């Protein structure tokens, strides 16, 4: 009787050990991305982050834009049915480095041309409030078309806060004002 219990316990233990070895073997195969049939590489997607494509509409424009993870507030927005999105984003007069502005340009360009299906043109102005004069002044502006925004040009806006290349500035029709030069002392040379 004792021997049978011991044999049953041994069988259960061996079954568990074989299961663990099988799981480790299968996980090893999956992690090395090798197939069971040879050395060819196999793609094993674990998760896929697919951004849904947004269709801009007049009645949901503000709601759509407010859901975006932006750092600077929108002070003016306009949408036209031919696909022109115009907006002003506001920066505080205490800003000392243009990096946040370039990151914001990247975010708006990416949203407009890679996350929507009907924005054909983006007109964006970065404005700063002059509290002494009680008015807004433009720091920089861009006016670009969907077909001008390539991934490499877009990535230039997040290169450690450095000004984009002359090629990117021309493609985006990016215009710096003298206030930009006064504020940051950095201006791309054309």
Topology:
Blueprint: H1 2-32, H2 61-66, E1 74-80, E2 84-91, H3 99-114, E3 121-130, E4 135-145, H4 151-155, H5 166-172, E5 174-176, H6 178-184
Parallel strand pairs: 2-3
Antiparallel strand pairs: 1-2, 3-4, 4-5
Describe the structure.
This protein is of the alpha+beta class. The protein contains 6 helices and 5 strands. The chain has helices spanning 2-32, 61-66, 99-114, 151-155, 166-172, 178-184, and strands spanning 74-80, 84-91, 121-130, 135-145, 174-176. It has a 5-stranded mixed β-sheet with strand order 1-2-3-4-5. Strand 1 and strand 2 (84-91) form a beta hairpin. The chain starts with a helix and ends in a 6-residue tail after the last helix. The model is unreliable at 33-48 (pLDDT under 50).
- Poorly predicted ranges: 33-48
Give me the number of helical elements. Answer: 6
Q: What is the number of beta strands?
A: 5
Mean pLDDT: 81
* Rg measurement, Å: 28 Å
Q: In which order are the strands of the major sheet placed? A: 1-2-3-4-5
Distance between the termini: 93 Å
User: Which percent range fits the helix content?
Assistant: 25-40%
Largest sheet: 5 strands, mixed
Order of helices and strands: HHEEHEEHHEH
The dominant shape is elongated
Percent of residues in beta strands: 15-25%
SS content category = alpha+beta
């Amino acid at each position: 009787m004792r021997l049978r219990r011991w044999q049953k316990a041994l069988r259960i233990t061996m079954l568990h050990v074989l299961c663990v070895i099988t799981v480790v073997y299968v996980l090893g195969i999956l992690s090395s991305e090798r197939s069971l049939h040879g050395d060819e590489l196999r793609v094993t997607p674990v998760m896929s982050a697919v951004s849904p494509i947004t269709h801009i509409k007049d009645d949901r424009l503000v709601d759509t834009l407010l859901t975006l993870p932006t750092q600077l507030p929108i002070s003016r927005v306009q949408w036209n049915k031919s696909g022109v999105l115009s907006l002003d984003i506001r920066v505080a007069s205490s800003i000392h480095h243009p990096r946040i502005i370039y990151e914001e340009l990247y975010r708006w360009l990416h949203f407009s041309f890679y996350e929507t299906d009907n924005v054909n043109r983006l007109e964006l102005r970065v404005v700063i409030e002059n509290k002494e004069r009680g008015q807004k002044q433009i720091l920089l502006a861009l006016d670009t078309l969907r077909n001008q925004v390539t991934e490499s040009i877009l990535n230039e806006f997040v290169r450690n806060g450095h000004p984009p290349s002359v090629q990117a500035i021309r493609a985006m029709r990016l215009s710096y004002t003298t206030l930009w030069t006064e504020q940051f002392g950095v201006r791309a040379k054309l």
